[in-house]
Each structure stands twice: as structure tokens, then as C-alpha cells.
Amino acid sequence: MSAIEKVAALAALINSLGCSPRIKLRHDATPEAWGNTGICIPVSGYIEVQGPWPFREVEWLEINPIVMKHIGRLVASKRWNHSDAIVSFLQTEGVGYSIVEGMIRISLDA
To answer: Which Pfam families match (predicted)?
Structure first.
């Protein structure tokens, strides 16, 4: 399985869990804003979180494994931690990752 295919499979998992992703571009000092619509692979060689970017321009992809759902004013929000599911997938697929301040970071080599 190629790196792009692995990211596409990861995107399907992340999108089904409702986790928020963000990317850091190689030419920017700070990462892009967190996306709330998941990860999309619009065409081969591109990744879309907040906008489509060529894989070669993306330094890393980061996933927030914590999902919060607002229930109501008088009821506490529901919280899910999907770290185990995401890490298990990454290990099974042989994808290198690191945990940075609770976020799962995947380096994308061009």
C-alpha cells in the first residue's frame, strides 16, 4: 500500500470517528487551523483539510483524537478519546507517528 493509499485509509477512519485534523505546510512556520469536516483526498497526490494541498507541500498531518459533542446547556458535553483506535490502525499499517501534546502527528515525506 502506497503512502497516499495509507492516508486515504486513515482519512476514512478519522472521518468516521469525527476527529479534527490539521496540516502543517513545509513553507509555513505555523500549522493550518483545525478542520472540522475531516480529511479528503480530492485527487491523487493532494490532501484537503482546509484547502487542497499537494502532498509534497505538507510536512505533517495532525489528528486530535478527542471528540466532544455538545448535548445541551444543562447536560455536560459527551467526550470520546479515539487514540487507541487511531494508534492501532497506524501500527497495523506500519505508519510512523508521534504523540505531541496529546495529538497524533504523522510525518508526510514527499
So the answer is: DUF6678 (PF20383)
Q: For residue 19, what are the contacts with CB-CB under 8 A and spacing of at least 6?
A: 38, 63, 64, 65, 66, 67, 82, 86
Half-sphere exposure of 34 toward its Cβ, with a 13 Å CA cutoff?
A: 10
Place of cell 485534523: 21
Q: Are 69 and 108 in contact (CB under 8 A)?
A: no
The CA distance from 61 to 105, in Å, is: 6
pTM of the entire predicted model: 0.85
What's the first-to-final CA gap in the chain, in angstroms? 16
Q: Decide: 65 and 104 in contact? Cβ < 8 Å.
A: yes
What are 45-96's pLDDT values in tens digits?
A: 899 988 899 999 999 999 999 998 888 888 888 999 999 999 999 999 888 9
What's the rounded Cα separation, in Å, for the pair 70 and 57? Answer: 35
